[in-house]
Design goal:
With 344 residues, the chain is of the alpha+beta class. α7 (177-196) runs antiparallel to α9 and α7 runs antiparallel to α12. The protein has helices at 3-14, 19-25, 36-46, 52-59, 115-134, 165-172, 177-196, 249-253, 260-276, 286-295, 306-315, 327-340, and strands at residues 67-68, 71-79, 84-90, 96-101, 143-149, 152-158, 163-164, 209-211, 217-219. Helices cover 41% and strands 13% of the residues. The protein starts with a helix and ends with a helix. It has two domains: 67-158, Phosphorylase Kinase, domain 1, CATH 3.30.200.20; 163-340, Transferase(Phosphotransferase), domain 1, CATH 1.10.510.10. Strands 1-2-3-4-6-5 form a six-stranded antiparallel beta sheet, covered by helices on one side. A hairpin with a 4-residue loop joins β2 (71-79) and β3. It is built from twelve helices and nine strands. Keywords: ATP-binding, Kinase, Nucleotide-binding, Serine/threonine-protein kinase, Transferase. It is an enzyme of class 2 (transferase). One of its GO terms (cellular component) is cytoplasm. InterPro entries: Kinase-like_dom_sf, Prot_kinase_dom, Ser/Thr_kinase_AS, Ser_Thr_kinase. Its EC number is 2.7.11.1.
């Protein structure tokens, strides 16, 4: 059996293509060539039959794990300690979705999560689903349902093309203040919609904010949101709920009492990161960052426009009552600033 024949067997066994379709597609490939598998893989990627992610897995010998129920897994979108997000194609209805997948249970044969950890993640998934039922907004990624297939639990979510703000900063560096302000103006109606029904995001950060190809904002990941009527979530290993780089001082001690201005503080941290290329209190341990959010004043670049710095200073005030009163009030303030600074 040639290497190409083995590769074809694996593809057919995976269910990604039928043997007949493979044979037809790979007809131009000479099977005895030393680089036949490379040629075949390149051709199948170019024709859109397979993705680079799928080919890489197949070439390591894997023939399973390419589907979750009716969804074909195309490529990873993001991953973290508690879940991974995959781009998937709906084989029944067509179109693409994002699947947020819980890692498997630990067993004697594989690493994974214990039951308590898995249940904590699922509680956040159910919270995301509940928020999606209460608030529908074009700047918030939709969550369709929670599924379980052969012991694998996952959320089926709207796929938002584009890049996260985190990825944008990493690839291209800081933004101009006007661009950052315009992004916030586009995003803030989503926060207004959440706050109107008593929902506080509690984890605004560049990794949870998308920039679409059309230049729009989109808000992701409401798994840590404060939602009226839902029970409290457990704190993390640092004794907080949220991300140390972007957490409001009052959320550190009282995560279930934080109000809308807590989200505005976090958005102030995001805007600071966008224009400076780093969070307000970068570096150090999570505990050091928490202390700085309580007591320190961030340093601003000398060339930052004074009135934009003033808005950031207001957003990053330690006392909630010193910040803008609401997301809509902040939006009006930023919108006016953008109009008066056409070239910033």
């Amino acid at each position: 059996m040639t290497d190409l024949s083995l590769f074809i067997e694996r593809v057919a066994a995976s269910g990604l293509m039928t043997a007949a379709a493979l044979k037809d597609r790979l007809r131009p490939i000479e099977p005895t060539r030393p680089d036949a598998v490379d040629q075949a893989a390149r051709l199948l990627i170019e024709t859109g039959d397979l993705t680079p992610f799928q080919v890489k897995k197949l070439r390591t010998g894997l023939t399973k794990g390419f589907f979750l129920g009716r969804w074909r897994l195309m490529r990873p979108l993001a991953s973290g300690g508690s879940s991974r997000v995959m781009l998937a194609r709906d084989e029944r209805e067509g179109g693409f979705v994002a699947l947020k997948v819980v890692p498997p249970r630990a067993s004697e044969h594989r690493q994974g999560l214990d039951d308590d950890h898995r249940e904590a993640i699922l509680a956040r998934f159910r919270r995301e689903l509940e928020v999606a039922r209460r608030v529908i907004h074009p700047r918030i990624a939709r969550v369709f349902r929670l599924e379980s297939v052969e012991g694998v639990d996952f959320l089926v979510m709207e796929y938002i093309p584009g890049v996260s703000l985190e990825a944008s900063i990493a690839a291209h560096g800081p933004w101009k203040p006007r661009r950052a302000a315009r992004y916030a103006v586009d995003l803030l109606p989503a926060l207004t919609a959440l706050h109107a029904v008593g929902i506080i995001h509690r984890d605004l950060k560049p990794a949870n904010l998308m920039l679409t190809p059309q230049g729009h904002a989109c808000l992701l990941d409401l798994g840590t949101a404060l939602v009226p009527g839902l029970p409290p979530l457990p704190l993390d290993d640092n004794g907080i709920l949220g991300t140390p780089d972007y957490i409001a001082p009052e959320q550190i001690d009282h995560p279930d009492q934080v109000g809308p201005t807590g989200d505005l503080y976090a958005l102030g941290c995001v805007l600071y990161c966008l224009v400076c290329g780093r969070p307000p209190f970068a570096g150090g341990s999570p505990i050091n960052k928490i202390v700085k959010h309580r007591f320190d004043t961030p340093l601003f670049p000398e060339d930052l426009e004074p009135d934009f710095r003033e808005m950031l200073t207001s957003l990053l005030a330690k006392e909630p009552h010193r910040r803008p009163a609401s997301a809509s009030a902040l939006r009006a303030q930023l919108k006016a600033w953008v109009q008066h600074h056409p070239s910033s």
